[in-house]
Amino acid sequence: MENVTIRMLAERLQLSTATISKALNNSHEISEETKQRVLALAAELNYVPNPYASSLRKKASNTIAVVIPEVADSFFAEAINGIESVAQEKGYHVLIYLTHESFQKEQAILRDFQSGRVDGVLISVTTETAAAQHGLEQLVKEIPIVFFDRVCEEITAAKITTDDATAAYKATTHLIAGGCRQPVMLSASRHLSISNKRTEGFRQALADHQLPFTAASIIYCSNDTIATHELLKKAIQKEHYDGIIATTEKLATAVYEAAAALHLQIPHDLQVIGFSNLSTAKFLNPSLTTITQPAFDMGKAAAALLFKALKSSSFALPEQQEVIPSTLLIRNSTLAAAD
């Protein structure tokens, strides 16, 4: 069924669109008789107001976009809650765009924003994103943008992150304290700064405890669940790892599955730490030790910055940086006691 518009109402009643709009908004400039005629026809035709129309005429959509890789990851689900807690207070709509870890999809989404569909963007980039070939640098000049969690370091823009290098260092040190001498880190990307920072912290912890960092110390995994499962089984059998740091929730689950397939007992044969905000981590068997990120606070902080920029054109948004610490939560998948 065709959507009924103000223009259609105007044509039927032989009135101007301005008169129709004012009547629908109960303006004192319009007579009661005309208001009743307009409202009666609107009810008859099931006219539904477009919440974006008036704001678009003012060159504002009262809408912000959140661009993320996926919603299955509990980090992003919590971050969205933080974002919406601010947006609702400001009377803004939130549109969620999923890239599914595809650089091409991300580019297509960002091109769509150049039409003025949204007033600002909050983005966590894909594992495939490389800033050098990205349209983000130009878009930052055209529309307020805040990066959160996964950022492009090369681009001058507002960024909300957590202490990824420090968190990885803590995780690695915890494994070593539990007796691990052959730990490995599972990474989702060779390009993302967040992955590189975690690798940096991991590598530094090994060096500080006189343990070698080799080509086998990092395993780069894909988004293919079956391929990752096979890769992990072969690597664990070949390298005899005694500790694993999984840098995403999916990878933490994959480790449990690989350990079960190889008949390895966690944590006695293989200790595991995951970067995860899963509320069910404590119910896994054994419960998963996690680096828990401040997802809600990061989303809330990113949205707060964006709305400051939307409120004041003089606000220096690209200069804003904030780092919110993560937390090591020790459970039963590792052996070392809490400090």
Automatic annotation (TrEMBL):
Annotated GO MF terms: DNA binding
Xref: PANTHER family: HTH-TYPE TRANSCRIPTIONAL REGULATOR GALS, LACI-RELATED TRANSCRIPTIONAL REPRESSOR
CDD domains: HTH_LacI (cd01392), PBP1_LacI_sugar_binding-like (cd06267)
Gene source species: Chitinophaga hostae
Biological classification of the source: Bacteria, Pseudomonadati, Bacteroidota, Chitinophagia, Chitinophagales
Origin superkingdom: Bacteria
UniProtKB keywords: DNA-binding, Transcription, Transcription regulation
Keyword Cytoplasm carried by entry: no
Gene3D superfamilies assigned to the protein according to its UniProt record, in alphabetical order: 3.40.50.2300, lambda repressor-like DNA-binding domains (1.10.260.40)
Protein known as: LacI family DNA-binding transcriptional regulator
Domain HTH lacI-type: 4-58
